[in-house]
Design goal:
alpha+beta, elongated
Length: about 100
């Protein structure tokens, strides 16, 4: 059960379902995909001035707003690391070609 929970935190649900049903996922061609990577300019400089609790609080504020946008527009969150936030749209649509 923990393996599935881990996968759900890493992979989009349609991909997990495909892997469970077919044992693997197949490559797809979709020309309507957008991938966005957000990186805060000057983040390293700011980390030297702010206490960790304040810094994490600010990141949480922004990332929570991004999460809301992702939910609103049914996008896929790909990854957050440090001050980086990556998401994509159009990954799993009716027009997917195998």
């Amino acid at each position: 059960m923990k393996n599935k929970e881990l996968l759900e935190n890493i992979l989009p649900l349609p991909l997990i379902k495909e892997i469970e049903e077919e044992g693997a996922s197949r490559p797809r061609l979709n020309s309507n995909v957008a991938v966005v990577f957000i990186d805060f300019v000057g983040f390293s400089r700011i980390t030297k001035r702010l206490p960790p609790i304040t810094l994490v609080g600010k990141l949480n504020k922004y990332f929570s707003k991004f999460d809301g946008i992702i939910d609103q527009y049914q996008l896929e969150k790909v990854k957050t690391i440090g001050d980086g936030y990556m998401f994509a749209g159009g990954l799993f649509s009716e027009g997917d070609q195998l």
